[in-house]
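Researcher: I'm comparing several assemblies side by side, and this is the next one on my list. It has 389 residues spread over two chains. Same procedure as the others: predict the full complex and return the structure.
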Amino acid sequence: MNNNLTFLVISGILIMLGLMLSVLAAVFFNFRKKNQHRRAIQELKDQQQALQIEAAVVSEETERHRIAETLHDEVGAILSSAKLHLLGIKQGSLDEKDKKLHEKGAGLLNDVIKRVRGISHNLHSNILKEFGFNEGVRHFLAQVTGGTMLEADTVLDERFTGAGPENDISLYRIIQELVNNTIKYAAATKMELSSRLDPDKYTLTIRHNGNGLSQADFDAFSMRKEGLGLKNIRNRILLLKGDIRFEKTGQESFIHILLPQHVLPKP
Amino acid sequence: MKKTTIALADDYSVYREGLQVTLSGDESLEVIIEADNGKILLEKMETAVPDIVIIDYKMPEMDGMEATRLIKQRYPAVKVLVISMYHDQKFINHLMDNGADAYLLKDAEPEEILAAVNKLRN
């Protein structure tokens, strides 16, 4: 009788344990399945976000190109022709007052021609396509710092020949935005743009002696609606699957842009 | 005195008009050809060969680089002055490698254009 009772109790416990294990297993598998599902959804969301960013970047580039080309070729030709027409007026036929007006008009035309050319080059640089990434960066830096108090230097790794036309443009836009911001807000007097190609990554560093951003500043500003420039940088970095690091040490500020191996040219 | 003949090639007729104004300041110069691109220029040069070609770099159908190369191949005596909005040194070197004799920016002063033309015809 006692034996039977013991047997029943043990059987009951075993059945209960079995049931509990089954329930636990069911909960575990369900949890794993849900997690897999959640991960799949997240991956899809990430892919969709990457596609949206890519589409935005591509349409921005197309628009920039169109405006730059119109300004450079069409407006540029009209302005240059206006100048040749204006300067075609014989000075001898003018009185002193008209001579002064003529001179003033020609001076203003020269200014606007230079401004239009500058805007057009900033919007879209052919130099990147024609002469490669490093030359494009050097050219941009010389243009943008010429006539300012900022002393700029480049130490670029010549082994880096670009990361493909679209990636190069993204990287170039990031540099443009960062350098322009430094000129506008950081009050720097010295800047160095250097790069280094390693087998597994490419690092581009902007170093300056101004009041630069910290990582926390960048993370906060780039999420704000009005921080369009920094948001663009963040989007392009996402598109490149790269990384951007802001660092401040003593009197100097550093911005490191890191590109992963998959966008680097094959050796 | 025989006039120096000139061909103008630029897809923007408004700029060709500007060049005409500048060149009209020197009576010894005569524009005999106007063309919208390199292809039309070469077609027109089959009937009249100018002494100097003033050509834009960026044009549809055939740009100034290719046209310069072909002009120098077919008419080595013709001088080519490229006028462009591009001013990068490497770009200019590339033009010179293709046979261009001189280069000026599109926003050059009228005196610079006339001086370049004078240098080429001497």
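Model: For your comparison table: Residues 132-267 of chain A form a domain with the Heat Shock Protein 90 fold (CATH 3.30.565.10).
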